[in-house]
Amino acid sequence: MKRVYNFSAGPSMLPLEVLEKAQAELLCYGDCGMSVMEMSHRTPEFEAILNDAEAALRKLLDVPQNYKILFLQGGASTQFASVPLNLLSEHKCADYIVSGQFSKKAYLEAKKYGDIAIAASSAGATPTFSTVPETKRSDFRPDADYVHMCFNNTIYGTKFHYIPDTGNIPLVADMSSCIISEPIDVSKFALIYAGAQKNVAPAGLTLVIVREDLVGNARPDTPAMLDYKEMVENNSMYNTPPCFAIYMAKLVFEWILSIGGLEEMKRRNEKKASLLYDYLDNQSYYTAPVDKKCRSMMNVVFVTGDAELDKKFAKEASAAGLKNLKGHRSVGGMRASIYNAMPYEGVEALVAFMKKFASENPKLDA
Amino acid sequence: MKRVYNFSAGPSMLPLEVLEKAQAELLCYGDCGMSVMEMSHRTPEFEAILNDAEAALRKLLDVPQNYKILFLQGGASTQFASVPLNLLSEHKCADYIVSGQFSKKAYLEAKKYGDIAIAASSAGATPTFSTVPETKRSDFRPDADYVHMCFNNTIYGTKFHYIPDTGNIPLVADMSSCIISEPIDVSKFALIYAGAQKNVAPAGLTLVIVREDLVGNARPDTPAMLDYKEMVENNSMYNTPPCFAIYMAKLVFEWILSIGGLEEMKRRNEKKASLLYDYLDNQSYYTAPVDKKCRSMMNVVFVTGDAELDKKFAKEASAAGLKNLKGHRSVGGMRASIYNAMPYEGVEALVAFMKKFASENPKLDA
């Protein structure tokens, strides 16, 4: 069976080498006579998998020793509640930067728990959220418990081109759609979280990287499973963790280390994104609506300007083995998600298809 | 590589046929050119998987039409909070039957949210929790919002031999370690939940079967991901669900349907449990400490009466390919978890080993 190029925004492609290794080990991991899926999380074999996964991620991102790494369930949407439940102090005040639908959802969820304000928003851009807000330190309330942002906006294809200066206020970032796509300076953030289903592993795993001093201050009525302290004290095993997804994450981390770590990953991702953006910038059939300075390296949005043509494009691309190129329903057009596991050849095939489609489908007003 | 008999309490064995099918499809599901792990949850292919999983479970358990089936994350431990957050009314009162460590944990978590009482407990049994409490309707407060129980107690090897009569009070049951092991009358319960990692699928999936009238009454500050209404309205896809675990659950459900449904599953499980309990009842080397009328069909606890011998047993059994027979650290001795996927031959091999071990290791005081 021929594998396709899958441009889905998430869940999304996994490295073929990783899938092949998982397949080979699916009935029997090492010499232990069982699948990772069947393995008690209390065995030395699984504890080694968990510890190896953590060590590999710590190495990849150069995570400082005063940060804990957690392997949780529930996705970023659960963190939308966990963050205020754990980080809001008694006076309960936090500021949100709204740069897309997910940061807006995070803001609305946090409002259940305290005095939450929008410090900056790019909702008013044309088209909406086609850029990220510029912020300065004075945009944030000095007594805010934290500032929340979403670093890469999957739906709109934008990414922060800068790290907001929040002074002493802890900065919290949802990095679901950009984590481990390039090096980041973890120490600039107080907490980073990410759903795994884009760059890390199959859906069902959430990474949390949290500075130690932020752990242990949850509201008393915080569900135990959402309390970072419980998760830290139990090394992510307060209950049975999503073992197989953690194993897959370990394989993905080790794959990145094997090719040269995040510097090499960034080089490959930049090369893929440049191929696509350079083509977009040098023709007039398609438009890339995103502010150039904050273009996402992971999610590339483009439109023909004609909804019917967009529809035809997605349909014919799919038939040609280029899957899931339809843009998010709130944006329309096309979106090519080119995460870590998308090979360069996939983007080459996409650009070739775009050229062919443009020549075969002249616009009526052209 | 030879596969072993894995008696782990969870995660635990999966049917070999299911693992083999998952392995064959791991790089390419059907003709879609990608793994289920890479598939967007918004595609028709994944929606079919989710719908098929739900339909198969509904058929297996004969779930009435006024019950919703949810595929969630976070394990039973998350439900320990979700249940009170969703089911407690304004006067906030619920009764718990405590029959083991997990029902006690559920009780302690619920106490964060209201007036929670222990209606009955078997903690005082000798050994502790070696039986389940007998209850009658008058044990429960008439104004309780619900009564909570754990139907099968994994650690202690007990199972309720009766369904508590709670009158009009909704009965909530944690069935993590016995769901789909035999037919149950779902209509006797208001809500059933179960972590998947014993009888259903790999860890990372939680089943919730909830009567419709209990949905939509969550506290305003309930995290959206713990609010049954959000999950029902979004067909378990408020955010990206644990797609691969749902796919595995579907394969397991279909495997049970293929062998004859839960009547046949029960027959096989009874046959396995009888083999082991009959042996235990007809010798004097090992003791089964559990009250006979509430013996679990899934988790069989036994001891030699000598901690050193118990340790030797688990070690030598492991070397003989009978894995994870060590009892829970709070109970000691041995525990053989013989869930749906454990073949009869595994229990035969265990009994043969028990006989051999007894003959080779005479007790000093015998």
List the main descriptive attributes of the protein structure presented here.
homodimer; about 375 residues; Aspartate Aminotransferase, domain 2; two-stranded parallel sheet
Describe the structure.
The structure is a homodimer of 366-residue chains. With 366 residues, the first copy, chain A, is α/β, with parallel strands linked by helices. The two termini of chain A are 41 Å apart. The first copy, chain A, is globular. The first copy, chain A, folds into two domains: 17-258, Type I PLP-dependent aspartate aminotransferase-like (Major domain) (Aspartate Aminotransferase, domain 2, 3-Layer(aba) Sandwich); 261-360, Aspartate Aminotransferase, domain 1 (Alpha-Beta Complex), CATH 3.90.1150. The mean pLDDT of chain A is 97. Chain A has a seven-stranded mixed beta sheet, sandwiched between helices. A two-stranded parallel ribbon of chain A has the order 1-12. The relative contact order of chain A is 0.16. Helices cover 34% and strands 15% of the residues of chain A. In chain A, a hairpin with a 4-residue loop joins strand 6 (152-153) and strand 7 (158-159). The first copy, chain A, contains nine helices and 13 strands. At the A-B interface, helix 1, helix 3 and helix 6 of A face helix 1, helix 3 and helix 6 of B.
